[in-house]
């Protein structure tokens, strides 16, 4: 590929961007050996703290560290304010969309989205029809994945409205940077993010009509890849971390088993997918959920955050319509851009995609975590042919996008400091108001040239700074 | 607090305490196995004793058939396939801690996680490199550190109570087993071995040192250790932290302080046992036969553990 990448730190002419100058000065005065030593220190600290994630399908060493890079990703505050407004606008529209499709379905009647796209979607939950949720909120916690193209424009790559993860790394990365390089934080104004757990708890409480509801975090258990994060957030918020077996239903209410007897639960921050929540309503083989939970939910006696059935709105086949949603519900123009998307279910788009596979990124509409996707320019001929066959067999299950020139950020790798591709996931909280902490999680593809930043595919993370200019 | 959380906290500290006591057991057996053995061919019996006391001798024989010192040490300390090895106890403690890392402090978690990481290093390098005594010291030290991190950082709430319940139940049981094993080593002849014989002296003082009760013994009795004062010290003295009475007294107080009505049976049993120890004299115990008395009491500790389990920890 010959197109230039947008470098977060340096202008095309090689000069340092203003919001990175303080850091560049520091970097120039810091010997590589010291950086190496600090990185080693960071590894030890992360390992000792057990800040790990679990890799599926890996029997050898199931607990791994997510590689942490000591060079931060920095965003100018003025630029951040635009991204922030864009994320808020987007999540508000998505919540209105969810409220709508489970009630009047105005957007379908107006002909803006083909009804079968929504109603026949795997993520659409009939059980949610007509159910009124407090404040009409569905996605209380959302992650918006952003990338920057070669000219620095921000694009939304996807929305995560089910159980977005990674916020614990955002918080731990900041803690680590402040510990390793306090001088950097003294030298400039970097917006704080440590209050995220406070905002999250506030969001969870405001999702319930009760005055002082009891909230818990529901985890699939310690073998889940994000278990560290579940435990981390429960601890930071000072609420119980429960598994399905700790909860039971009695008289249309939900209780947890405690050493002092049953205690009522009002809000569940669930980190469990819809299909595992209740064996009576969804997957009957699931041991992870709580029998009867959905009937309590439908009776309005417990709040689930996020709500059941949000998956329909972050489905990749619905993604192309988000711009229209923003216009339809908010009467505003989208602040953040969508990546142009070909929907393989449309015959015209399909033939274009099949003709240009080596240039495109192909994704499964229901996939997540970087599993089941094709990056055309990086794929072998055999992989491309394999995908061609899969797309032909189930065209409706795939979308394709141009290969974006993800921006790069200097990263400390084996060979020294070199540019690597990054993305950004801000976390948007919706409660009595819609808000986010400055920045988010920056993921970095550590392999040279790689565009896949997912931790399950060998990606790392960076601290993300919003710097006052 | 969640019953499952309470259960994980309780087992976390039980396994850690068990690892510590296994190390103490290993220390006394190992040091005695190095002694010239009067009337015995070698120190194998001593090492086998620690397997017997921890209830794993049969498993060992099934696996290795003969009593080989090196294999016994490995089996007892590092064998990942022996669920009662020190290795497996530390692993279990860490697994329980992992499950409740949201409920313990960062200091506690990092401590127990670091212990486990180091344990894996030691296991992959082998005990020979490390040295038996040094390994025992290391296990004890890690246990001390964790207890220190716990008492220094955790809030005084139910979590703290369940952690301590686990510690003292396990310790009570282990002290009884260690004393029983030592007493057993005298075999049928225990009455004949005069307490001031060299062997008796080394036996009892090794036990006292392993339980870090040697200083206390000297201060209280100012005499060479023998069956009667050692038993009295380890069973009835409430001011010696690893004694049975001290453990039961702690358990009694912790249980009495737990909120709710679910624990009546456990509270009553602990109070009964505490009262019994307070008003028992060592001569009564020796008259009944030390081994019989110890066996009976191990059963009662087990029963207390069951009652605690039913009242607080069970996920029905």
Describe this structure in words.
The complex is a heterodimer of chains A (469) and B (316). Chain A is 30% helix and 24% strand. Chain A has 13 helices and 23 strands. Chain A has helices at 21-28, 32-49, 77-101, 106-109, 115-119, 167-180, 182-187, 196-206, 227-237, 293-298, 322-330, 347-355, 381-393, and strands spanning 52-54, 63-65, 68-76, 141-148, 154-160, 215-218, 240-242, 247-250, 253-258, 261-264, 267-270, 303-305, 337-338, 342-343, 360-364, 373-375, 398-402, 408-413, 416-425, 427-430, 434-436, 441-445, 459-467. Chain A has a five-stranded mixed sheet. In chain A, strand 6, helix 9 and strand 7 form a beta-alpha-beta unit. Chain A is globular and about 65 Å long. The model of chain A has no long low-confidence stretch (mean pLDDT 91). Chain B is mainly α. Helix content of chain B is 75%, strand content 0%. Chain B has helices spanning 3-33, 44-53, 57-64, 69-77, 86-99, 106-125, 127-130, 132-153, 158-185, 198-210, 214-221, 227-236, 244-257, 264-278, 282-288, 290-313. In chain B, helix 9 runs antiparallel to helix 13. The longest helix of chain B is centred in the N-terminal third of the chain and has 31 residues, at 3-33. The chains are: A alpha+beta (469), B mainly alpha (316). Chain B: Residues 1-313 form the DUF403 domain.
């Amino acid at each position: 590929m010959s197109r230039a990448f947008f470098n977060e730190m340096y202008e095309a002419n090689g000069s340092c961007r203003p919001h990175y100058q303080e850091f560049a000065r520091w970097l120039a005065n810091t010997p590589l050996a010291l950086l190496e030593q600090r990185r080693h220190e960071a590894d030890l600290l992360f390992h000792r703290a057990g800040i790990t994630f679990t890799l599926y399908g890996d029997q050898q060493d199931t607990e791994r560290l997510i590689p942490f890079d000591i060079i931060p990703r920095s965003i100018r505050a003025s630029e951040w304010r635009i991204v922030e407004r864009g994320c808020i606008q987007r999540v508000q529209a998505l919540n209105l969309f969810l409220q709508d499709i489970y009630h009047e379905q105005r957007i379908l009647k107006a002909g803006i989205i083909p009804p079968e796209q929504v109603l026949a979607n795997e993520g659409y939950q009939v059980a949610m029809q007509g159910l009124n949720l407090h404040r009409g909120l569905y996605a209380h916690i959302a992650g918006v994945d952003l990338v920057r193209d070669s000219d620095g424009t921000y694009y939304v790559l996807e929305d995560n409205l089910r159980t977005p993860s990674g916020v614990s790394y955002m918080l731990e990365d900041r803690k680590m940077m402040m510990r390793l390089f306090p001088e950097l934080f003294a030298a400039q104004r970097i917006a704080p993010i440590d209050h995220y757990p406070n905002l999250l708890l506030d969001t969870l409480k405001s999702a319930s009509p009760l005055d002082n509801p009891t909230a818990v975090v529901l985890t699939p258990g310690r073998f889940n890849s994000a278990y560290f994060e579940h435990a981390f957030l429960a601890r930071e918020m000072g609420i119980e971390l429960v598994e399905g077996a700790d909860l039971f239903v009695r008289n249309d209410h939900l209780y947890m088993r405690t050493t002092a007897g049953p205690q009522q639960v009002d809000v569940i921050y669930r980190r469990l997918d819809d299909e595992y929540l209740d064996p009576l309503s969804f997957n009957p083989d699931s041991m992870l959920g709580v029998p009867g939970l959905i009937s309590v939910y439908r009776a309005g006696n417990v709040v689930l955050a996020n709500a059941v059935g949000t998956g329909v709105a972050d489905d990749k086949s619905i993604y192309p319509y988000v711009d229209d949603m923003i216009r339809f519900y908010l009467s505003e123009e989208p602040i953040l851009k969508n990546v142009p998307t070909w929907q393989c279910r449309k015959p015209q788009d399909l033939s274009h995609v099949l003709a240009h596979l080596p240039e495109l990124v192909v994704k499964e509409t229901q996939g997540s975590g970087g599993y089941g996707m094709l990056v055309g320019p990086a794929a072998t001929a055999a992989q491309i042919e394999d995908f061609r066959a899969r797309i032909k067999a189930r065209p409706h299950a795939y979308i394709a996008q141009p290969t974006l020139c993800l921006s790069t950020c200097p990263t400390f790798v084996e060979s020294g400091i070199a540019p690597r591709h990054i993305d950004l996931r801000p976390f948007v909280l919706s409660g009595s108001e819609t808000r986010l902490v400055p920045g988010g999680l920056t993921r970095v593809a550590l392999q040279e040239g790689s565009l896949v930043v997912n931790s399950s595919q060998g990606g790392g993370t960076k601290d993300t700074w919003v710097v006052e200019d | 607090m969640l019953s499952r959380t309470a259960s994980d906290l309780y087992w976390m500290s039980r396994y850690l305490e068990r690892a510590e006591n296994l190390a103490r057991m290993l220390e006394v057996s190992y040091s005695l196995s190095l002694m010239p053995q009067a009337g015995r061919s070698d120190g194998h019996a001593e090492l086998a004793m620690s397997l017997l006391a921890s209830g794993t001798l049969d498993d060992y024989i099934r696996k290795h058939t003969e009593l080989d010192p090196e294999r016994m040490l490995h089996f007892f300390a590092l064998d990942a396939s022996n669920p009662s090895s020190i290795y497996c106890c530390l692993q279990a403690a860490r697994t329980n801690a992992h499950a409740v890392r949201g409920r313990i402090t960062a200091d506690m978690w990092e401590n127990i996680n670091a212990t486990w990481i180091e344990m894996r290093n030691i296991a992959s390098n082998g005990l020979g490199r490390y040295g038996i005594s040094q390994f025992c010291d290391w296990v004890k030290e890690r246990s001390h550190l964790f207890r220190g991190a716990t008492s220094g950082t955790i809030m005084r709430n139910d979590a703290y109570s369940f952690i301590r319940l686990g510690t003292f139940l396990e310790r009570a049981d282990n002290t009884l087993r260690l004393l029983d094993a030592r007493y057993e080593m005298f075999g049928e002849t225990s009455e004949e071995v005069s307490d001031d014989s060299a062997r008796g002296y080394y036996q009892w003082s090794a036990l006292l040192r392993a339980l870090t009760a040697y200083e206390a013994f000297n201060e209280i009795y100012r005499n060479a250790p023998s069956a009667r004062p050692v038993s009295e010290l380890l069973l009835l003295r409430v001011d010696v932290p690893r004694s049975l009475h001290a453990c039961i007294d702690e358990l009694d107080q912790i249980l009495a302080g737990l909120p709710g009505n679910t624990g009546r049976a456990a509270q009553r049993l602990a109070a009964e046992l505490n009262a019994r120890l307070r008003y028992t004299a060592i001569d009564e115990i020796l008259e009944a036969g030390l081994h019989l008395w110890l066996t009976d009491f191990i059963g009662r500790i087990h029963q207390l553990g069951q009652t605690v389990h039913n009242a607080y920890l069970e996920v029905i």
